Amino acid sequence: MQSGYRRVVVKLGTSVLTSGSKCLDKAHMVELARQMAAMMKAGVEVVLVTSGAIAAGREHLNYPSLPDTMANKQLLAAVGQSQLILAWSQLFSIYGLHVGQLLLTRADLHDRERYLNARDTLNALLAQGIVPIINENDAVATAEIKVGDNDNLSARAALLCDADLLLLLTDQKGLFDADPRNNPNARLIPEVQHIDDSLRLLAGGSVSGLGTGGMATKLQAADIARRAGVEVVIASGHHKDVISGAIGGEAVGTRFLALESPLESRKQWILAGPKAHGRILLDDGAVSAVCDKGRSLLSKGIIAVEGKFERGATLELCNSSGRVIARGMCRYGAEALAAIAGKHSDEIEAILGYDYGDAVVHRNDMVVLETGAI
Ligand SMILES: Nc1ncnc2c1ncn2[C@@H]1O[C@H](COP(=O)(O)OP(=O)(O)O)[C@@H](O)[C@H]1O
Ligand SMILES: N[C@@H](CCC(=O)OP(=O)(O)O)C(=O)O
């Protein structure tokens, strides 16, 4: 196998694990475990992000008719996760491999110390040749602390463990120019160099009722990963030898090229770790200063402040039409920011009675997502 990849995150969607049915397809899971074990034998480190807990819970409890509440989903995940990890543990043991389970929520990624802790655990498992298996901790994660879908979770896992390839396996051959389920003429897009709004429009949600997020969340995941220098491939989990093919650089599915100058580690965390607690709308001058001139954000360029947040919170910075153009940590809380919005930096102290500096969001605390974003 020809591969420049050292460390790969493989994400398996519910659609792959169930092969479109209502139960785990163990015969296919063993084939996927075989492929991952072969890669590990060839010297590539593999981290598995697996969905399927809720599906496995339903199967194990013999498809109970439960009201569709959050508590019942958590019940299914609690039952199903143990079945899922048991299945993976048995399947990898066929190839002489141990597995280690990490159940994460956004809170684990939000807090920088917990983030680094999770990273240490991942590295320790990989150093011992143990397969780290990650899923969201659905049994305890409420909407507030959830990443929400395993595509986004796998991108964060790829950043966490400094992977060089993220392989998103699903029930389609890759990203098409329309959802192939509704459009028989849809064509596969073999390579993506830039992710922009026109591409986002092509990527729809999940219509099968099995997966969460569809192609839309896969595109979000691809965007996060490639900004951190991670290549991404979206491909079919049922394509023959798909894992070795993608790792070997073969043209399977849709390949997203990584950005040439990836973000440094702290900025990767700003991008993917904390949940945004608010939004600020910027005027055109501020958008151009932030996006094109590499400047910090000053209070003068703020048109509006949305949300309740404390000083130090991560915010979405939007242009005047509401499109997110950057993410950054704000040096002022929501109330203070609303009071100084549109005002000159010299006036901050007189208005607030204190001054944390001219830069409301400092350049070093900001990740710019677009250039020419007015
Ligand atoms: N442009 C597109 N190209 C391919 N698939 C798409 C597109 N837009 C929406 N989809 C849908 O995304 C689905 C895959 O996502 P999802 O159901 O969440 O699966 P998984 O469980 O693998 O995450 C496909 O079955 C397809 O219907
Ligand atoms: N954490 C959930 C899966 C969430 C999810 O994103 O599912 P999918 O879109 O099938 O990858 C579970 O284990 O059932």
What keywords describe this structure?
Archaeosine Trna-guanine Transglycosylase, Chain: A, domain 4, 2 domains, binds the ligand N[C@@H](CCC(=O)OP(=O)(O)O)C(=O)O, alpha/beta, glutamate 5-kinase activity, binds adenosine-5'-diphosphate, Carbamate kinase, 374 residues, five-stranded mixed sheet, 14 helices
Give an account of the 3D structure:
This protein is α/β, with parallel strands linked by helices and 374 residues long. The protein has two domains: 7-267, Acetylglutamate kinase-like (Carbamate kinase); 276-368, Archaeosine Trna-guanine Transglycosylase, Chain: A, domain 4. It has helices spanning 14-17, 26-41, 53-60, 70-93, 106-110, 112-127, 150-160, 197-202, 214-227, 242-247, 265-272, 284-292, 334-340, 348-352; strands spanning 7-12, 45-50, 99-104, 131-136, 165-170, 191-192, 231-236, 254-256, 278-282, 297-298, 302-306, 314-318, 324-329, 359-361, 366-368. The chain has an eight-stranded mixed sheet, with helices on both faces. It has a five-stranded mixed sheet with strand order 11-9-12-13-15, sandwiched between helices. Strands 10-14 form a two-stranded antiparallel ribbon. A hairpin with a 5-residue loop joins strand 12 (314-318) and strand 13. Helix 2 (26-41) packs across helix 4 (70-93), helix 3 packs across helix 4 (70-93) and helix 7 runs parallel beside helix 9 (214-227). The longest helix has 24 residues, at 70-93. It is globular and about 70 Å long. Bound molecules: adenosine-5'-diphosphate (ADP) and the ligand N[C@@H](CCC(=O)OP(=O)(O)O)C(=O)O. The site of the ligand N[C@@H](CCC(=O)OP(=O)(O)O)C(=O)O has 15 residues, from helix 1, helix 3 and strand 4.
